[in-house]
Amino acid sequence: MPPRWRTALRASLPVGLGYLPVGIAFGVLAVEAGLPVWVALLMSVLVYAGALQFAAIPLLAAGAGLPAVGLTALLINLRHLLYALPLLRDLPRQRAARLYTLAALTDETYSLATAMPPAQRARLLLPVAAVNQAWWVLGTLVGALLGPAIGSRVPNLDFALPCLFLILAIEQYRASRQAFPLVAGVVVTAVARAVLPDAHGLLGALLLALLWLGWQARRDARHAGHAEEGDA
After folding, report:
1. Phi, psi angles (nearest 5°) of residue 161
2. Which residues span the domain enclosing 207?
3. Can you list the residues of the chain whose pLDDT is less than 70?
4. Torsional sign, CA 225, 226, 229, 231
5. Is 182 in the same domain as 151?
6. Which of 167, 165, 150 is nearest to 29 (CA)?
7. 163 within a domain of the structure (yes/no)
8. DSSP result, 174-229
9. What local confidence, expressed as pLDDT, does residue 128 receive?
10. How far is Cα 133 from Cα 109, in angstroms, rounded to an integer?
11. Would you state the pLDDT for residue 51?
């Protein structure tokens, strides 16, 4: 195994420890909902979006139409457009590798990449993304094959993904010591749940977070402009 792939494997171990059980949970829930094993596995290979895959299970099981599934995918994964912006300079130069890395840029891969030194990030972004997906696909395969055997013995499997997000948020705070993202997430979620129906809570929280972050970026840019004028 090339050295950078060994390094990526070591770096991905914390994600793998989360992806394996969460992937197993997805595989179990998918087959329990009546989806074939190959459909669950294909989703983890081609779709590879944890929150969307969990949300798609009841939609596919209920025979939802393509517009409903497509709109759900767009709304849930809209945040990935923001993830790619800080990493554009670190993407591989080869077209195929570049496109794959963009497609495989999950929350957890973004979290690992942004915690790396810039010089290391460009070298490891592709292998980290690929190894993280391998963990997810492996978990899905195990869960889909063993679903009938373990589904009834392990309750509340659908809570595995929120637990993984919570762990990543804690690790990000410990690495950066910046409380604003955590506070923003808690506030927009609370507001969305208070004023919107449960079915629209996630979308409302995402829109509020985007508005808040946009306002924050504009304010920071204004302050930076005033500072430059003062220096001049």
Report:
1. -65, -45
2. 178-232
3. 75, 78-79, 148-162, 164-165, 167-168, 171-176, 198-200, 202-203, 224-232
4. negative
5. no
6. 150
7. no
8. HHH---HHHHHHHHHHHHHHHHS-GGGHHHHHHHHHHHHHHHHHHHHHHHHHHHHH
9. 92
10. 9
11. 76
